[in-house]
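Input sequence (288 aa), recorded before submission:
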Amino acid sequence: MTHITKVRKFMTCTNAPTDTFVEVNGLKLHYTDWNSSTENTTLLIHGLGKELHVWDSVAAELARTRRVICVDLRGHGLSDWSKEGYALESFVDDLSALLAHLNIAEIQIVGHSVGARVAIMLAAMWSGQVGHVLLSDAGPELSQETAQLLCKASMQGMPSYDSEHGVLAALREAHPDWRDEFHQISLRHEYRRNWIGKFIYRADPEILWMVQTEWVEGNPRLWESWEQIQAPITVLWASESAFLDEEIVARMRVTQPTFELRRPTGSHFYLRQAPEEFLRYAQEALAG
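Predicted structure, token format:
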């Protein structure tokens, strides 16, 4: 059963989002709400280990014509960690409860990576109330080659750094193709200083088990949910990404033959490589 209690807001500025905490299902969730006076609403859902501020530049532009809500999923960003774990369904239930709390009757959904998988389930749950679904570089299934690579990487755990300079150096080495603003966003919002002064990921380390349970083993409910989506769907599959493959896309066509597939140039993190291009794809999809 879903439970929502008190709401706390700590920032309200002209032309800026409200920055809000709400208690959902016994956890404090953090979200931003842009242009809340507009009824046309779009929800942006981040990927595994990330947080809502990755969407800031896209959200600011989309909010010129619509309401935009960005959420730190449980275990991420400033939202609470969960003792019950991080099954995909728990994220979906949290978001559904939040949208109901905000009295949102119809929604457009944008999700990246794990956020795209959450979007698939949420769109099925909100069948008939979703205007469009935009999935960024993920679908109901992940190619097994990529799943195994992710699993191997996740078993190495979360690294630590002695300084902010060390974090930035590691980010720039691992992702030289990111815009530097996204290196800075990652430093500010995806890392924290722990009790011995080390800089570590802000997210709950337990979320790494999602790689095993959701990416490697798979979740059959995702294919069921994919089939149940009634809204138009756009899938962005980055040209250098192996998160999808032709076999998975062909299977997606069987039950959703009219979904639109676009191939933006870049890797899985192309949002951080070319945010303007991502924004154009999003505006085109959501305008339909």
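Checked by second reader. The two ends are 35 Å apart (CA to CA).
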